[in-house]
C-alpha cells in the first residue's frame, strides 16, 4: 500500500525500497485498470479473446470451525499450493464457530472435469479440513451439517452458471469418490432442480440438536433421509455431509438485535423472509450470537434488487414492534466487483 511506503527526511537508504514499493503498487493498479477496460470492451461487443481470458468464478467454502487456528493455518497452506487460485476473503466468526473462505480463479471456456485451479484449491481445502477437524467435537449456535458445511460457486465477470456448474459437479464427484463424504448438489449444479434451503430442510439443518439454540456434535444417525448425488449413503459422525451448489451471486447480511429473546427474533426473521410473507428473494433465521445478542441472519438471493439497506430498515421496523433495539448490520463477504479487483491485485504479484 502507498501509505506503507511513506517516509520522511533524507534517508537515502530507503529510496530503493521506496521505489520498488511504488512501482509494485503502480503495476497492480495498472493491472486492475486494464482488467476493467477489457471488460468494458467486451461489453461493447468486441474482444472475444479478451472475454475468454476474463472468465472468473469464485467458490465460497464454509467450514464448521474457527477456534482451532492450527487447523485453519493448515487449510490455508493447502489452498496456496494452487497459485492460480487465490483466497480473496476470509470471514471468521468465533461466536458461531464458523469460517468462510472466498476463493477465485480464472475459468477456461470449457472447464475440464479433470483439472481446474479453482476446483483443485477447494478440494485441497476440503481434504485438509476433514483431516484436521472432528465434527463430533464441534459446537456452536450456527446450524451446520458437516465439517465442510457448504460450498457455493458463483460466476464472476463473463463466466456462466453452466461453466461453474461443471466445476461444482466435478468437485462433488471427487469428494464422494476420494474422500468418502456424502455430497448433495443444488442450484444449477443439481440435476433435480433442488434449492439449497429445501435440501437443508430435509437434512435437518434448521433444527438445533442440543437444546433450543445449539448445534453440537455430529449426526445422531448414520442413515440419510435423501440419497446423495455423490459419495456413500451412510454418514460419518466425524465428517458429516457437504452441500455444493452453483447460483448467481448471493449476499449474506446479518443484523444484531440486542436481546436474548430468541422467540421474538425468530418472529422478526420469519416476517423478513419471503417464505414468511416478507421481502422477496430473502431467506432469514434468528440465531443466538453471544451472551446478549441474537442475530437476524439473511441470505439475499437477489442483492441488486433487495439489498442490505432494505433489510436493515425492515428489521428495525419489526424490532420496534417487539420493543427491541437493533444494531447496524454487516455483510460477511465482499461484493463481486471488490472480489474481482482483489483477485487481480493478488494475481499480478
From TrEMBL:
Enzyme Commission number: 2.1.2.5
Pfam families: FTCD_N
Segments forming domain Formiminotransferase N-terminal subdomain: 55-248
EC category: transferase
Protein name: glutamate formimidoyltransferase
Any one Gene Ontology molecular-function term assigned to this protein's record: folic acid binding
Record's keyword terms, sorted: Transferase
Boundaries of every Formiminotransferase C-terminal subdomain domain copy: 253-343
Amino acid at each position: 500500500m502507498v501509505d506503507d511506503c511513506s517516509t520522511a527526511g533524507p534517508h537515502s537508504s530507503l529510496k530503493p525500497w521506496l521505489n520498488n514499493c511504488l512501482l509494485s503498487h503502480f503495476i497492480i493498479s495498472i493491472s486492475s485498470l486494464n482488467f476493467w477496460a477489457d471488460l468494458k470492451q467486451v461489453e461493447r461487443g468486441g474482444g472475444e479473446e479478451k472475454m475468454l481470458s476474463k472468465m472468473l468464478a469464485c467458490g465460497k467454502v464454509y467450514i464448521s470451525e474457527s477456534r482451532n487456528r492450527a487447523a485453519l493455518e493448515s487449510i490455508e497452506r493447502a489452498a496456496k499450493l494452487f497459485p492460480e487460485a487465490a483466497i480473496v476473503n476470509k470471514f471468521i466468526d468465533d461466536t458461531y464457530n464458523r469460517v468462510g473462505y472466498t476463493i477465485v480463479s480464472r475459468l477456461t471456456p470449457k472447464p475440464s472435469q479433470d483439472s481446474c485451479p479453482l476446483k483443485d484449491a477447494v478440494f485441497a481445502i476440503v481434504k485438509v479440513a476433514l483431516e484436521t477437524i472432528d465434527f463430533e467435537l464441534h459446537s456452536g449456535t450456527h446450524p451446520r451439517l458437516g465439517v465442510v458445511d457448504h460450498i457455493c460457486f458463483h460466476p464472476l465477470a463473463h463466466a456462466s452458471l453452466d461453466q461453474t456448474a461443471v466445476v461444482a459437479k466435478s468437485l462433488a464427484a471427487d469428494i464422494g469418490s476420494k474422500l468418502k463424504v456424502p455430497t448433495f448438489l443444488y442450484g444449477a449444479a443439481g440435476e433435480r432442480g433442488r434449492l439449497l434451503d429445501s435440501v437443508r430442510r430435509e437434512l435437518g439443518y434448521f433444527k438445533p440438536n442440543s437444546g433450543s439454540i445449539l448445534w453440537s456434535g455430529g449426526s445422531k444417525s448414520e442413515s440419510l433421509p435423501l440419497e446423495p448425488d455423490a459419495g456413500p449413503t451412510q454418514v460419518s459422525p466425524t465428517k458429516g455431509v457437504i452441500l455444493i451448489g452453483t447460483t448467481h451471486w448471493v449476499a449474506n447480511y446479518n443484523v444484531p438485535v440486542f436481546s436474548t429473546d430468541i422467540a421474538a427474533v425468530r418472529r422478526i426473521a420469519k416476517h423478513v423472509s419471503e417464505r414468511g410473507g416478507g421481502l422477496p428473494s430473502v431467506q432469514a433465521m434468528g440465531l443466538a450470537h453471544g451472551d446478549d445478542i441474537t442475530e437476524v441472519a439473511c441470505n439475499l438471493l437477489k442483492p441488486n434488487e433487495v439489498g442490505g439497506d432494505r433489510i436493515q430498515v425492515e428489521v428495525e421496523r419489526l424490532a420496534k414492534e417487539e420493543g427491541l433495539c437493533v444494531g447496524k448490520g454487516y455483510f460477511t463477504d465482499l461484493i463481486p466487483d471488490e472480489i474481482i479487483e482483489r483477485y487481480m491485485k493478488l494475481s499480478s504479484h
